[in-house]
C-alpha cells in the first residue's frame, strides 16, 4: 500500500504498489518495518525574538521527553541490536532540541524517535503539549509567523485634492 504522495503524514493513499524483482537490484527499497521499526522525525517551532527562548527550549524538551519516553526505551534496545548486527555507529535516540536564528524568528527543531506507525499521532501529541504550555506562559512565549513588521518606514501623508465640479 503506497504512502504519501498527495496524502500527508505517511498515511495510505489507496494505491497498491508492486515492485518487480528486477527493480530490487536497481534501486534501493525502503522498508519502515524491518530491523529498526522507528524513524527520526522533526518538528519545527518558530517563536518571536521577544519570547523567552530558555523557557521555550525547556517546554519543547519536556514535551518530547514525556511523549516519547516508552518509544525511546524500545528504540534504544532495538538500536543496540542494530549496532551489534550491522556494526554501525551508535546514534542519539533521546529527543533533542536545536535552535536556529533566522531573519524573522527563532526556529527550534525538536528531533525525536517515533514508531513508524505512530508518526502523525506522536507529532500531534507533542505539538499539542507545546501549544498548551506556550498558552500558559502568560505571553512570555509567542509563536512566530510570516507576518512582517515594518521598521523605520517614513511617515506617510496622503493629501486628497478636490476638484471643483
Structure overview:
A hairpin with a 4-residue loop joins strand 2 (96-101) and strand 3. Helices cover 33% and strands 16% of the residues. With 165 residues, it is of the alpha+beta class. The chain has three helices and three strands, in the order αβαββα. 17% of the residues are buried. The protein has a three-stranded antiparallel beta sheet with strand order 1-3-2, covered by helices on one side.
List key phrases describing it.
165 residues; alpha+beta; three-stranded antiparallel beta sheet; 3 helices; extended
Looking across the biggest beta sheet, what order are the strands in?
Answer: 1-3-2
Derived structural class: alpha+beta
In percent, how much strand structure appears in the residues?
Answer: 15-25%
**Weakly predicted, low-confidence segments:** none
Tally of helical segments: 3
Give the N-to-C terminal Cα separation: 73 Å
SSE string, helix = H, strand = E?
A: HEHEEH
**Which radius of gyration do the C-alpha atoms yield?**
23 Å
Write the layout of secondary structure elements.
Blueprint: H1 21-24, E1 38-47, H2 53-86, E2 96-101, E3 106-115, H3 119-135
Antiparallel strand pairs: 1-3, 2-3
Helix pairs in contact: 2-3
Briefly say what this structure is.
This protein has helices at residues 21-24, 53-86, 119-135; strands at 38-47, 96-101, 106-115.
Amino acid at each position: 500500500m503506497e504512502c504519501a504522495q498527495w496524502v500527508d503524514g505517511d498515511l495510505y493513499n489507496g494505491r497498491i504498489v508492486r515492485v518487480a524483482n528486477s527493480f530490487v537490484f536497481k534501486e534501493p527499497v525502503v522498508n519502515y518495518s524491518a530491523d529498526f521499526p522507528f524513524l527520526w522525525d522533526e518538528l519545527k517551532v518558530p517563536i518571536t525574538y521577544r519570547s523567552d527562548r530558555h523557557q521555550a527550549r525547556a517546554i519543547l524538551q519536556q514535551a518530547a521527553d514525556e511523549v516519547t519516553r516508552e518509544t525511546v526505551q524500545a528504540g534504544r534496545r532495538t538500536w543496540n541490536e542494530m549496532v551489534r548486527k550491522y556494526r554501525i555507529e551508535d546514534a542519539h535516540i533521546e529527543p533533542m532540541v536545536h535552535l536556529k536564528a533566522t531573519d524573522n524568528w527563532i526556529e527550534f527543531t525538536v528531533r525525536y524517535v517515533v514508531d513508524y506507525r505512530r508518526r502523525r499521532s506522536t507529532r500531534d501529541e507533542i505539538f499539542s503539549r507545546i501549544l498548551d504550555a506556550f498558552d500558559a506562559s502568560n505571553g512570555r512565549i509567542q509563536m512566530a509567523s510570516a507576518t512582517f513588521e515594518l521598521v523605520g518606514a517614513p511617515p506617510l501623508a496622503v493629501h486628497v485634492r478636490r476638484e471643483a465640479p
